[in-house]
């Protein structure tokens, strides 16, 4: 019907478009794997923290036998957070698991804050070297958690931006990248949530 | 500022780099064609291809030559420079650097490299390695002394970004290619002087182009550093400190051009100032990060004052730690002139407060004035308050007790900041008291206020302010300079710093900034020892009274700086300032005078 040259050009354009779409899909896959990998970084650090906490509690128990409640609260929060982490590791980036993890880690942070406040009232604790080492380790792990979370959120953002841009947005839903990945946010500890009242008297 | 936008902008310039590279690579062929057109008058179709074929081996040789330098891996390069490994030893002193590197590795998503320390005085850092897995990070000793935590973090983040972008390998490859072409040009040029000149100028242009490309990379790395640390000020403050430091980022004598681009800042002075240097000038880098920068570099102390184990060195390090962080932070804040500073806020606060009529009339009679002052000094703490009330009941004079009762309600809600103006208002009435009665008054005052430990100094201050209103001051011989009495001065400043600030670090900051005003080298913050009480304090004050006139003015200025550092002047601080002014017989620094409430229209009942 039409000239061969027309068909040649038509097929040529089609193949260019197809190649472009393949490139988009590959980039989506790339970015998704990147943030999944970033999540495993957080997982490593969070796990380390979960493992250090029982040691800390054991050392503290010897000195703080009266402070049952605080210690028990920390243990509970830690156990919940650990199981949440396992669940979240199965599907990093999905909104419900990220929200759950964020909430429970936030609770663990609050419990740890309360523990730290209580620890300050036992000055002879600071003479114990194990205690100091553990305390240092946990602080450093928390720093690393912060950076790992930052990197994860950056990767998630890259994925979301790429997915939402034109023309990727047209094909994303059909090829299995239909939803945005969720950022990981640790709920603020209670102290921050209550705005401090300032008085000048 | 949007970090990611920053990076996007720098990345767009990479396209410019590609265009440049292609253009530069093709230019010899073009050049050759033009030359042969000129020389031979005609060009056969194979001649440009022949030219390219001749260039290829040279390019290959140059490429191989440069990349070969990377063969030993990052560690070999670092060790060749003379650096030593610190990441394996975990020596407590340097542990923090290793930890910073680990944290930045996590933040940038890279594997953790080994960390080396280089014994050079300049502030600089360096990344070396063929692949990201193979890289190492080298930091100089000067950097560890001068920069603080955040700034070293910024430097390391900058290097990580360069490692991630494979800058080292790409730069070596680019350099290799250009080197090859340049050798060829020079080789041909050896035959013909005209071509030689063209070859040399072309080589210069090539390096110029390459340096522009590397500069864009540097800006990109700076922006990435901001992204990883989430702290734009840390990168700019590291650069500012390099600018203000006597050795800058210079690395010492052996200038090798090998891996110039991988340094954080320009390592060699001669090369650093050339047009074709790969490092952008410091000012440009700072301005990209901080557009509102005023061009001032912070005063970095000389390195020799910070090294060593002596007490003075310790003290210098502490001082630099406290001040260094602030010097750069303050200049980073966008200072808008509409924002009131501490002094203005204080004046405003006092001006807005209102004095009820009852109180104002009470201030004009000797007996009621005494009662008023007693009331003003009552504590906020309920237990201390009860104690003070019971002490007040023991006053023999019935009239005063009566006034005390009447003034209870009006004074209860008065703003604390009105204490000082009211004191001034009462002063004429109080001066009418007979000396014995005045003595009794001051004694009762001290007893009441000393119920609380923290009140002793305030009580002393108020008594001194009152005494300042009395005519006929005793003249003191002016014989000391600040340097001679530096112990007393540092003690006083330490006390004032602690009085007005809640946290130790804030107090230290205020103390060090106040010491900046003084002409001598500071000592650590002194505080009164436990056993020392008011008598010893009196002794210090007597010594300070004997300072020369100009020195006293400087001391008042130092106190003023101490008070307004944190942007908040509490009423206790201003009382101390007035007390010192009264004691030293010196005027209060400008702007800090207490507004007077003589006029009757300042009277209104509180709502």
Rg for CA atoms of chain A? 25 Å
**Cα distance spanning the termini of chain A:** 93 Å
- Share of helical residues of chain A: over 70%
Flag low-confidence runs of chain B: 334-338, 599-607
Into which percentage range does the β-strand content of chain A fall?
Answer: under 5%
Oligomer: heterodimer
Low-confidence stretches of chain A: none
Number of strands of chain B: 4
Largest interface: A-B, 16 and 14 residues
**N to C succession of SSEs of chain B:** HHHEHEEEHHHHHHHHHHHHHHHHHHHHH
Helix content of chain B: 55-70%
Derived from helix and strand composition plus strand pairing, the structural class of chain A reads mainly alpha
Number of strands of chain A: 0
- The SS-based structural class of chain B is mainly alpha
For the biggest β-sheet of chain B, the strand order reads 1-2-4-3
Provide the gyration radius of chain B in Å: 35 Å
Q: What is the succession of H and E elements of chain A? A: HHHHHH
**How many distinct helices of chain A?**
6
What is the overall shape of chain B? elongated
Total helices of chain B: the number is 25
Secondary-structure map with pairings?
The complex is a heterodimer of chains A (201) and B (607).
Chain A (H helix, E strand, L loop, with lengths): L3 H60 L4 H23 L4 H25 L9 H36 L3 H5 L17 H4 L8
Chain B lengths: L2 H38 L5 H23 L4 H9 L2 E2 L9 H14 L5 E5 L6 E4 L7 E5 H6 L2 H16 L2 H25 L1 H37 L2 H13 L24 H4 L9 H8 L21 H22 L9 H11 L4 H6 L3 H11 L5 H12 L4 H15 L6 H13 L3 H15 L5 H15 L16 H15 L3 H14 L16 H12 L3 H16 L6 H14 L23
Parallel strand pairs in B: 2-4
Antiparallel strand pairs in B: 1-2, 3-4
The gist of it:
Chain A is built from six helices and no strands. Chain A is an all-alpha fold. Helices cover 63% and strands 3% of the residues of chain B.
């Amino acid at each position: 019907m039409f000239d061969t040259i027309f068909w040649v050009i038509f097929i040529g354009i089609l193949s260019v478009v197809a190649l472009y779409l393949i490139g988009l899909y590959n980039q989506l896959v790339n970015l998704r794997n990147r943030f999944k990998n970033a999540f495993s970084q957080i997982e490593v650090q969070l796990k380390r923290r979960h493992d250090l906490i029982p040691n800390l509690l054991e050392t503290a128990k010897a000195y703080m036998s009266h402070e049952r409640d605080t210690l028990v609260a920390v243990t509970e929060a830690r156990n919940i957070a650990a199981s949440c982490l396992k669940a979240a590791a199965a599907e990093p980036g999905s909104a419900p698991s990220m929200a759950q993890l964020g909430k429970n880690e936030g609770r663990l942070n609050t419990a740890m804050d309360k523990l730290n406040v209580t620890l300050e009232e036992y000055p002879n604790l600071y003479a114990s070297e194990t205690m100091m080492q553990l305390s240092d380790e946990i602080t450093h792990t928390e720093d690393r958690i912060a950076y790992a979370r930052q990197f994860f959120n950056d990767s998630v953002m890259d994925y979301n931006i790429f997915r939402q841009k034109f023309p990727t947005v047209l094909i994303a839903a059909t090829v299995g990248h239909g939803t945005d990945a969720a950022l990981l946010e640790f709920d603020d500890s209670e102290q921050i949530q209550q705005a401090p009242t300032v008085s000048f008297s | 500022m949007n970090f990611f936008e920053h990076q996007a902008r720098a990345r767009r310039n990479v396209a410019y780099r590609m265009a440049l590279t292609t253009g530069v690579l093709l230019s010899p062929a073009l050049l050759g064609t033009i030359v042969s057109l000129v020389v031979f008058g005609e060009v056969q179709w194979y001649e440009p291809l022949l030219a390219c074929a001749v260039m290829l081996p040279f390019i290959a040789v140059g490429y191989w030559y440069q990349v070969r330098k990377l063969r030993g891996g990052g560690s070999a390069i670092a060790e060749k420079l003379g650096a030593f490994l610190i990441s394996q030893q975990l020596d407590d002193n340097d542990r923090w650097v290793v930890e910073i590197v680990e944290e930045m590795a996590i933040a940038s998503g890279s594997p953790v490299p080994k960390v080396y320390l280089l014994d050079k005085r300049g502030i600089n850092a360096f990344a070396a390695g063929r692949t990201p897995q193979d890289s190492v990070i080298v930091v100089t000793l000067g950097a560890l002394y001068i920069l603080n935590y955040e700034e070293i973090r910024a430097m390391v983040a900058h290097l990580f970004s360069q490692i991630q972008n494979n800058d080292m390998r790409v730069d070596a490859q680019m350099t290799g290619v250009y080197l090859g072409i340049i050798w060829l040009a020079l080789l041909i040029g050896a035959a013909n002087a005209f071509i030689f000149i063209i070859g040399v100028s072309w080589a210069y242009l090539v390096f110029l182009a390459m340096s522009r490309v590397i500069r864009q990379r540097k800006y990109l790395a700076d922006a990435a550093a901001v992204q990883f640390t989430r702290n734009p000020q840390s990168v700019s403050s590291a650069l500012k400190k390099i600018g203000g430091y006597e050795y800058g980022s210079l690395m010492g004598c052996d200038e090798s051009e090998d891996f110039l681009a991988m340094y954080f800042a320009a390592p060699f002075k001669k090369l650093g100032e050339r047009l074709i240097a790969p490092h952008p000038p410091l000012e440009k880098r700072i301005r990209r990060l901080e557009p509102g920068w005023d061009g001032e570099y912070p005063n970095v102390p000389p390195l020799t004052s910070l090294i060593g184990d002596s007490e003075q060195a310790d003290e210098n390090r502490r001082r630099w730690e406290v001040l260094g962080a602030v010097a750069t932070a303050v200049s980073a804040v966008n200072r808008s002139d509409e924002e009131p500073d501490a002094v203005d806020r204080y004046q405003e606060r006092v001006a807005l407060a209102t004095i009820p009529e009852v109180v104002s009339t009470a201030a004009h009679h000797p007996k009621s004035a005494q009662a008023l002052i007693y009331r003003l000094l009552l504590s906020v703490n309920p237990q201390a308050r009860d104690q003070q009330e019971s002490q007040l009941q023991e006053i023999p004079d019935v009239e005063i007790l009566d006034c005390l009762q009447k003034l209870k309600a009006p004074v209860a809600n008065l703003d604390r900041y009105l204490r000082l103006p009211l004191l001034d208002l009462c002063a004429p009435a109080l001066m009418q008291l007979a000396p014995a009665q005045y003595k009794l008054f001051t004694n009762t005052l001290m007893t009441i206020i000393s119920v609380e430990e923290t009140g002793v100094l305030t009580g002393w201050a108020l008594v001194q302010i009152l005494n300042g209103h009395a005519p006929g001051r005793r003249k003191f011989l002016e014989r000391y300079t600040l340097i001679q009495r530096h112990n007393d001065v540092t003690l006083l400043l330490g006390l004032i710093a602690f009085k007005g600030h809640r946290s130790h670090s804030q107090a230290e900051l205020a103390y060090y900034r106040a010491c900046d005003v003084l002409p001598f080298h500071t000592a650590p913050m002194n505080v009164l020892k436990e056993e020392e009480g008011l008598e010893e304090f009196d002794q210090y004050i007597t010594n300070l009274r004997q300072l020369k006139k100009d020195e006293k003015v400087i001391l008042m200025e130092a106190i003023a700086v101490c008070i307004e550092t944190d942007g908040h002047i509490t009423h206790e601080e201003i009382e101390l300032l007035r007390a010192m002014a009264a004691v030293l017989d010196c005027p209060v620094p400008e702007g800090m005078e207490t507004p007077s409430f003589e006029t009757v229209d300042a009277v209104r009942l509180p709502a």
